[in-house]
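Submission sheet (multi-component)
Chains listed below:
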Amino acid sequence: MFEQLDALLLARIQFAFTVSFHFIFPAFSIGLASYLAVLEGLWLKTGKSIYLDLFKYWLKIFAIAFAMGVVSGIVMSYQFGTNWSKFSDIAGPVIGPLMAYEVLTAFFLEAGFLGVMLFGMNKVGKKLHFAATLMVAIGTFISAFWILSVNSWMQTPVGYEIGANGQYLPGESWWDIVFNPSFPYRLVHTVIAAYLTTAFVVGGVGAWHLLKDRTNLHARKMFSMAMWMAAIVAPIQIFAGDMHGLNTLEHQPQKVMAMEGHYESHPNGAPLILFGIPNSEEKRVDYAIEIPKASSLILKHDLNAPLAGLDTIPDDEEPPVGIVFWSFRIMVGIGFAMLGIGAWSLFARFRKKLYDWPLLHKAALVMAPSGFIAVLAGWITTEVGRQPYVIYNLLRTADAASPLDAPAVAASLLAFVIVYFVVFGAGVWYILHLMHKPPHAGEYGVKRGDTGPIRTAGITPGPSQNPGDPDTLPRDHEEATDGR
Amino acid sequence: MDVNVDLTTIWAFIIAFAVFAYVVMDGFDLGIGILFPTFDVGPERDRAMNSIAPVWDGNETWLVLGGGGLFAAFPLAYAVILPATYPLIIAMLLGLVFRGVAFEYRWRDPGHRRYWDAAFTGGSLVAAMAQGMTLGALLQGIEVVDRSYAGSWFDWFTPYTLLTGLGTVAGYALLGATWLVWKLEGDSQHHARSLAKKAAWSTLVLMGGVSLYNVFLNAEYAERWLTAPEIYFAAPVPILTAVIAIALLRALSVDRHSKPFWLSIALFFFGMAGLGVTMWPYVVPPGLTIWDAAAPERSQIFMLVGVAITMPLIIAYTAWAYWVFRGKVADEGYH
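Outcome: structure written.
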C-alpha cells in the first residue's frame, strides 16, 4: 500500500514537471506565431523592410522555441499511457477522439507548413510563404482549442455515459462534450494569456535594446507593438479571468473556496482575503489581511450574499488550500502588474516619451518573463484546485495511475529532470543569446550552413576564416579544446 | 454490433497506416541520425541535415497520430502496451528530445556542435532501438489481467526484442542511406550508396532472423505461416519481399537516384504486411483482439469523419512541402 502511494506521488510529480516544462513553450509559440504572421502581413501590405527584419529576428527564436515545444509535447502524448493507464482506459473513449482531432487538425498543419515557414521564403514566393506562416499560426490556435477542450472536460465532465466495463463513453452529442461548461472560458483565458506572455517577452527585448540604444528603430517598433498589446489585452484578460472564476464558482466551488482561502462559510457576505497564511491544520488563514464582504461582491455581485466555505466539503474532497491560495495570488498579482505597464505605456505615449523613459524600459524588462510565471501559476491553481480528482467528481487521481513500481517511476522522473534541464536549459540560453543581439536592418533569417554567403560587399573571406552565421555563438570554446 | 466490427477493422487499418507512415518517414530521419558519425564534419554533415530539416517535424507527427490514434481508437491497448514497455517508451521519448533539438541547436552553437551532433546520433539510435524493441515486446506477447498490464517491468527485455530492435536500426539506416542517395550528389552520394548496401544486407539478414523467430515464438504464429489454407494468403508476402530485396540490391549496384529509396519503402511495406498476417486480429497478443480493445462506435464514427476530411488534406500539403524542397541539396542549405 505504501509503495503504491509512493509510485502515485512520483507519477504526479512527473506529470506536473513534464507538463509545466512543456507548456512554457506553447505559451510562447502560440503568441509568437501570431506575431510573426502580423509582422509578415504588415511587410506585405506596407512593403517596409523593418517588418521583414523583425520577422526574421523573431523567426530564429521561434524555430528554437517551437522545436522545444514539439519534443516536450510528444512526451505528453505518451505520458497518459505510460503513467496514467487506468485513466487512459476509462476516459479514452471520450477524450481520445478529441486528442486525435488535435493531431489531425493542428499538429500536422503546424508541422507541415513549418518547414516552408522557416526555410522556404526564396522557394515559394512571398504570398505562399505568408500563407504558410498563417497556417502555422492557425495551427497553434487549433491545438489550444482541442487540448483545452480535453482539459475542460476533465474539469467539468458532461455528455458521457458509464459503460458496463466501467469506461466513460460518449453520449448522444459530441458538441456537449467538446463545448463543456468550462471550455469557452478556459480557451479564451489561456489563449489571451499566451498572447500577453509573448507581448511581454517582445516588449522586454525591445526595452533591453532601447536601454542600450534608444535610437534603434527596430527596437522602438517591437517595443511599441508590444506595449499596445499590453495596454489593450491586459484589461481584457482581467475581465476574462473574472468570468472564468465565476464559471469555476458555479461548477467547481471548492476550487474557488481554496483560491479565496475560505475555510469557513460566510452567511452574511464573505471577506476578500488579500494576503495571509493558510493553516490547514487549524483550518483558518493566519495573519489575514481582508476586505470585508468584498469576496461576495466580486463573486456574487452582492455585498451580503452568502458564500459557502470548505467546512461544507468533506475533508477527503478538499484540494490542498495553500498551493491554490498562493498560486492564484501570484497569477492575479502579475495580471495587475501587466495592466499597470500597459497603462504606463499609454501615458508615456501621450507624453511622447515612449522611447525615452528608461524607467519604463527597465520595468518592461523586469516584466519580460512575468507571463510565463503567471501562466504556470494559473495552471497550478486550476489543476491543484480540482484535486483529489483527475476527472472532477468522477475519477480520483489515486485511481488513475498505471500499475507501476515506484523505482520505475522514480528512475524515469530523474531522467526527465536531468534531460530537461540540460536540453531546455541550453535552448533557453540560445534564445537569450539571439535576444541579446540588437535587431537591425538586413536581418538574417534561419540560416543553415557555415558556407553561406557573406553579405559584406567586396570582402571574400580567406580560407582560414569561417564567417558562419552571425547569430551563432562564438567558436572560442571549440578552438580552445581543439588545441589539447 | 456488425457495424462496430467493420469500424473496428477500419480503425485497425488506419492505425496501421499511421504507424507505417511514421516508420518510413521518420525512419529515414532517424536513419540519417544513426549514420551521422560516418559523414565528414562540415559540408557533408550539413547537407545530410539540411536534406531533412524542413520535413522532420511533419514526419514525427505521424508518431503522435499513431500513439494518439491508438489511445482514441483502442484505448485499452494503449493503456496496456505503454506500461508494459515503460522503460522503452521513456527511452524513446528522451531519444527523440535529443534528436529533435539537435536540428536547431547545432546551428546556433558551433562551439558545441560536435556534442549536439553526438546527441543527434545518440537520440536517433536510442529511439530506433526502443521502437524496434517495443514492436518485439508486443509480438512476443503482453500479460493482461483485469484490463491492466500484469507482468513485471523488464518482461520486454529478451533476445527476441534485441533482434527486432537491431532489425529496426538497420532498416532505418537503410531508409536514411537511400534517401541520401536520392538527395545528394558526387562523393557524398557515393558514400551514401556504399552505406546503403551494407544497411540493405544487414536489414535483410535481420528481417529473415525475426521472421524465423516469429514462427517459433508461438504455435499460433507458426500455424498461420506454415499450414494450409493460411499459407496461401501468407506466402505472397515473403515471396514479394524477396523480389523487392533483389531489385533493391540491383538498384544500389548501378547509378540510380530515387529508386533505392522507393524500393526500401516497399521492403518496409511487405515487412509490415508480414507483421499484420502474424498478429491479426490481435492488437495485444496473446489475449486482446482489436474488438476487445476497441473504443465504442460513437467514438469511432466521430473520429472517422475527422480522418476522412483531414487525411486527404494532410497528405496533400505534406506532399507539397516535400515538393517545395525537391531536388538535390545544395551546399548552402536553405535560406
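Remark: Chain A touches chain B through 92 residues (CB under 8 Å).
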